[in-house]
What we know:
The structure holds two protein chains of two kinds. The mean pLDDT of chain A is 94. The longest helix of chain A is centred in the middle third of the chain and has 13 residues, at 123-135. The radius of gyration of chain A is 18 Å and the shape is globular. In chain A, helix 3 links the parallel strand 8 (142-148) and strand 9. Chain A is built from five helices and eleven strands. By secondary structure, chain A is α/β, with parallel strands linked by helices. Chain A has helices spanning 81-87, 123-135, 157-161, 190-196, 212-224, and strands at 8-19, 22-28, 40-46, 52-58, 67-73, 93-100, 114-119, 142-148, 167-173, 205-211, 232-237. Helices cover 5% and strands 29% of the residues of chain B. Chain B has helices spanning 61-66, 94-97; strands at residues 24-25, 46-50, 56-60, 73-77, 82-93, 107-112, 117-121, 131-136, 139-140, 150-152, 165-171. Chain B is globular. The relative contact order of chain B is 0.19. Chain B: Pfam families: Oxidored_molyb (PF00174).
Amino acid sequence: MRPRLIWRTARLREARVETGTARTLVFEVPGWPGHAAGQHVDVRLTADDGYTAQRSYSLAAPADGELLELTVETVPDGEVSPYLTEVMRPGDEVEIRGPVGGWFVWRPASKAPVLLVAGGSGIVPLMAMIRERRRAASRVPFRLVYSLRAPESRYYAEELRRPEPGLDVTYLYTRATPDGVSRPAGRILLADLAEGGWPAGFEPDCYVCGPTGFVEAAADLLLALGHAPERIRTERFGPTGG
Amino acid sequence: MGIVSRGFHGKRRDGGDRLPPGQYLVEDFPVLSAGPTPRVPLERWEFAIDTEAGQTHRWSWDELMALPQETPTVDIHCVTKWSKLDTTWEGVSLDVLFEDVESAADYALIYSYGGYTTNVPVEDLLDGKAWIAHRFDGEELAPQHGGPARLVVPHLYFWKSAKWVRGIRLLNEDYPGFWETAGYHNYGDPWREQRYEGD
């Protein structure tokens, strides 16, 4: 039996601008039990008349004691995300419950090579895995294929720019391509995963996260490349009223 | 009352008393699955009920289509917080499929093409509470939403409504399925907000 998940008070410690529409929030959560890379939390907001709203957000980093990190993309006309990305200031409080999820996780004890396939904000739980690998000084080879609209939509741009032994990063741009990149802008294709991923014979663990259409396409391409379905873990971010 | 978040007002979209605690309304139909979408050709598709005594009842696609069909309109509630009201399905009531099944089992493990499993008490599958559905909103059920056919058991969180359903194993003892062994609640009643283990 796992301990029951309880609502804990989470105070915003700091916030960083990630892109024009995304913000990373670092919360201090007294009593936080820790979490695995890839897990998520439920966030509950309460208005002063008692009205509440809940949403789920992926954790962007391994736990650092009682500090945990979320990266939130603003959903236009959303109910919760604009509060987190635009209104909230350090010192403000929400409630957090978790960690949740025991499937879409990477643990440093695992020895298989890893392929991470991110679509847009789907990078968040995959970044937690990259950071967990670094934290644990794991030598498991990682490859990240990160599909995004344009250079300015990159999350964690500086951190991913720093060379890291055993981590290869490939960017795919769907709308606008930076200078010096020969691949034309467009959706993820078989060749992208053939070149940026691992051969199926290496039996890598594949983690795919992003909007539904992206995840469907990427998972189908991985199957076409010969990866076994049971080695492909997916997390679909529904385009909902966040 | 919980901790008040300074400056939060909320949208208060009106789901009235049809919205379980912690849920919000959506108009689209989000997709959530743990792996790639299986694609099952209809000529190879079958559905089975396996009894605790070792008997198996099987239906081919054509046999399922020949049974009396129902078109329930129901509200669905996903554990990831979204709810969708008035969704219309077409399929066969499990009451019809269980008509000739001899069983005294209290527990059912639903299993799917692609390997997914989920557990539901037998009484939650009967008396007009669950269907094997193959159409949604008047269209064939798309693979990403669980087609050719999925279980629809709308009074429980939607992970219990197994996509790509292949069969039901009747058991004398409860046997947790995929999400139930990954930290989620064993029963999953949205009205009691039974999201995670221990809720």
